[in-house]
Design a protein that fits this description.
Elements lengths: L1 E4 L14 H4 L1 H12 L13 H4 L9 E5 L5 H8 L3 E6 L2 H10 L4 E5 L12 E7 L9 H11 E12 L26 E7 L2 E7 L3 H10 L2 E7 L11 E2 L2 E2 L9 E2 L2 E2 H4 L5 E8 L7 H5 L10
Parallel strand pairs: 2-3, 2-5, 3-4, 5-6
Antiparallel strand pairs: 1-7, 6-14, 7-8, 9-14, 10-11, 12-13
Helix pairs in contact: 6-7
The structure holds S-adenosylmethionine.
Length: 296
Amino acid sequence: MISGYGSPPIDGPPDPEVAYWEVEAADYYRQHAASLGRDRLVWCPEGLEEASAGLLGDVRGLKVLEVGCGAAQGARWAASAGALAVGIDLSAGMLAVGRHLGTDGFALVQAEAAALPFADASFDLAFSAFGALPFVPSLAAVHREVARVLRPGGRWVFSTTHPFAWVFPDSPDPADLRVKRSYFERTAYYELHDAARLSYVEYHVTLGDQVRALIESGFTLDQLIEPQWPDADGATDGPAGPAGAGGAADGEWGAWSRARGALVPSTLVLCASLAGASGTSGANAAGRRRSQPRHA
Ligand SMILES: C[S@@+](CC[C@H](N)C(=O)[O-])C[C@H]1O[C@@H](n2cnc3c(N)ncnc32)[C@H](O)[C@@H]1O
């Protein structure tokens, strides 16, 4: 395996035969099962969990789409909370793990996030926990597609890698927090299985780019959250934003760690909405968003 920073030398998405999300699907879920659970919507390794954060509000009776659902813990949670849920993912391997965990009350569909196989205005709400967005070359292409399948006033809530994390080495150790790359360098980290096949790619954009891509796709930004790890005493809402409820098992997940997270953010959560029929933002028009969620 060869890895590097810069433009991937091979265009297009990873080759399904060697793609990380295909080949490692079962191991990925097994490794993180304690943190992800089966039917909990956990937004990030910091442990921010929908059951207490309430970023989506009451989903009962709503048509809900989970984008980049992986093993579909989020869609499973939404179905158990009364939503009509669908999860989409590009990876047949991740969907197979999801099917193995059970699909009672919701559907799974293999699809690319930037080409959703649904009619216009079919959903009330879309969400994603680190699904698809870190791995696509154009955020706007996904946002526009999500906007298309949402009804007027629909909401789009997602977590992704905090752009600030890009500047540091991919290490959970706070001693490694030295700036290695320019924050303003819009490029990628990639892995090649061999000279002809891309197996993994993750793209970097700035925080400004993240917000601009949403707005240019027709969304209003309702909330920007930089989740913190919980204090030793448990979850608290800090001045910088909400804390998770527990955080990843053992306080570590890749470059995410409780020790590093005490110093710098690693996750970004954006809550956005389309204008409603009256021209007001979806969150306000629907009145579903809690004014001050406990951990959010
Ligand atoms: C970090 S996992 C997150 C999975 C799940 N949301 C969770 O929290 O466990 C990223 C998921 O995004 C999917 N993915 C990556 N690129 C995608 C794309 N372009 N369209 C749809 N899904 C994609 C991967 O297959 C993988 O299942």
